Amino acid sequence: MWEAGRKPDSIVLRSTLLPASEGRSRLTKLILPKGIALRFYLLAAFEAQCRLNARETWENVLPLAGRGSWSDLVAIDGAYDTSSATYLRGTVGSRRLESLRLQQVKGALRTLEELGGEDALVTMPRRKSGQREYKKFLLMNESGRGGNQTPNVYTVPVRSWSAMKTIEIPAGFFLNGWIQVLNPSEVATWLILRMLSRWAPRKHIRSGVYLYGQDRLETFGLRDDAWEDGCQRLREFGLIRYAQPPDIPPSAPQELKALFSQPTRPRRRYEPHHWQVTDQGLDEDAAKRLDQELTLRQQALETAAKQRAQERS
Question: How far apart are CA 145 and CA 156, in angstroms?
Fold first, then answer.
């Protein structure tokens, strides 16, 4: 899709997806234990910007299922059949997997529509029987359907808009599989950090960006556990890091070198971590990096278990 299209270096997302209203944002409403609604919406924005120019209006050109369809864009762990506790193989497994992907896509469309009223990120016409016509879904702008009779159908954002209006997502997030690997709370945390880095670029470079719990909850509707877990996983994957001083060239004045050569003071209790977004990690294959982190985590758990056993003995 990217190769055959405009090959954008990054995807532009309107920041109206993130801020909270009455306690929750459209973004945090999509942090769900099951389903792919947030992933699907971002994939739809990616598809649109590979195909369309700025300000052009979205229309669906893909089928729901089959080769080159919306279902084909979604990677799910659907090869495992819980009823038989086995992995599906061959033609039967392939058909089952395709069916599961289609179910996931339809579920995502329902979730995006059921955000409700002005907040809906998808609308679908109904048949006379009341059933949804999934194939005819319309994608909405990040601000939702809106309150007018005519829905606010998605148009490609303009890249030159101010930092307050947009967030840029590097194409590697999609092309290297991070969109498939990160869970919704990790994606939400990452998007918020990207927004903060764009709002305060100098602070992001010099000392990192941060959010206190109350500010985070009121501004974005993201709770402590989702934020803390999200930051930890993103750091493990190399997508963010604890704030570090900027690289100083050898030709820099001695006074500047001395300023950043001092040890950083210890973080005070209740002070939030300062973060910097590191896009280099997006160049890695997400599935391989995930396997590496899972292996390291398993090894750490086994080592800790052995130490506890030795202490008891």
Answer: 15
